[in-house]
Amino acid sequence: xxxxxxxxxxxxxxxxxxxxxxxxxxxxxxxxxxxxxxxxxxxxxxxxxxxxxxxxxxxxxxxxxxxxxxxxxxxxxxxxxxxxxxxxxxxxxxxxxxxxxxxxxxxxxxxxxxxxxxxxxxxxxxxxx
Length: 129
Description:
Residues 1-109 form the HotDog ACOT-type domain. One of its GO terms (biological process) is acyl-CoA metabolic process. The chain contains one helix and six strands; from the N terminus they run E-H-E-E-E-E-E. The protein has 129 residues and is an alpha+beta fold. It has one domain: Hotdog Thioesterase (Thiol Ester Dehydrase, Chain A, Roll), CATH 3.10.129. Strands 1, 2, 3, 4, 5 and 6 form a six-stranded antiparallel beta sheet that branches. The protein starts with a strand and ends in a 24-residue tail after the last strand. The relative contact order is 0.24.
């Protein structure tokens, strides 16, 4: 699992109980997963198709630094399945896990198209071409 993105939990990220609002965390995850999928699939044209059960394991509080871990687990013909873990950067305690986040490569009309990728890419050179 690669933990590239870190977020600092600020007052505007909290719910009424003083912990990190789940919706805010899910927005961060969807954005990070989309960026990861774009780099892996080699296209800016991909969409979130599916997110499996979301398991909130523990809470994050104001001032915590959290990190989002994403990993590609399955390359389909038009899709990419990722797994996700969010943890506290300092304590390493898991905050959330998602077993499957599926992204689909799409054409201009939103229909799935083959992406031709079969393994994890560790470069984003294509973005600069």
